[in-house]
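# nightly structure sweep
# worker-07 picked up a monomer target from the shared queue
# config: single-sequence mode, recycle default, output format = C-alpha cells
# input follows
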Amino acid sequence: MAGGETVGIVGETGCGKSTLGKAILSILPPRTRVTGHLLFRRTDLNTLDREALRRLQGEEIALIFQDPMTRLNPLMTIEQHFLETIRAHQKVSKREALERTMAALTSMRVPESRIRNYPHEFSGGMRQRIMIALALVLTPSLLVADEPTTSLDVIVEAQILEILQDLKRNYRMSLLLITHNLGIVAEVCDKVAVLYAGKVVEQGSVTDIFARPVHPYTRLLLQSIIHLDTKELRSIDGQPPDLLFPPSGCRFHPRCPYAKPVCHEKVPPLEQFRSGQSAACLFGKDFV
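# output follows
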C-alpha cells in the first residue's frame, strides 16, 4: 500500500482479519507459526529480531485494538499511559512527553483537563479516541485499526471515522482498516481486500469491488448489505470453516451456490481479471 492510502480488510467473523493485523505487529501468541513474507519499506518483518521489531512497534507501525477497555490499564491514569508509551521508545523529558500527550489528545478532541482521569471515567467513544491518540503519539507511518468503531453508536462512529480521515491527511499516514462493515469501507477506503478462511479471495479498488465484484463470496457479502431499498434480508448459508481443518480445494465451495466438482479439488490462484482487480475463483471469468 502507498503512503496516505487506506486499505480495508473485510470478511465475516472468524476469517482471520484480526489475526492478520496482529501478525503485522508480531503480537500473536508465542507458539504461533508464521510463514511467508511481510514487507514494510522493503524489509521483511518476519526476519527481524525481537529488539528490531520492538523499535518498529509504535514508532513506525501502530495498532488500534477493537475494545479499548480491555487494552487500557484500569490502574493507570491516561497521563501515565502516554508517558510510559513515549518514554519506552524515545529519550525525552517528562515535560516534552506531556506536551506531546496534550497535543495528541487535543487532536482527538479529548479535553486536557481529563488527562489524570482513569479509563473507567470515560465513555466508550472517548476511550476509543484515547486509544487512537495513544497509537498516534509517536507519529507512525502505518496505522492498523482493528474494527475501531464496532462497539460505538452510529453518531460516535461517524466522528471517529472523520477523525481518522483528518489524521490520514495531516500525517500522510497509511491506514489498514479491519472491519466487517462494508458501508465504512465504501466511505473511507481507497482499496479493499476480501478475506475468507484466512486467504484473500478478492482485492482491488473500492469502486471496482463494489460495482463489479468477481468472487462469489464478495458478491454475497455485498448482497447482504442493508440499504434504503432493502425489502428482504439476505445472508450467506453456513459459516466459515474451522481453519485447523479447512476444506479441500476452494475454501468457499461448501457455501458457494456456483460451486462445481472441480472446486472441491483445485485450489484457485489469485489472478487478475481486470486492471488492479484480482480474485481467487476458478470461474471468475463468468462474473466479469
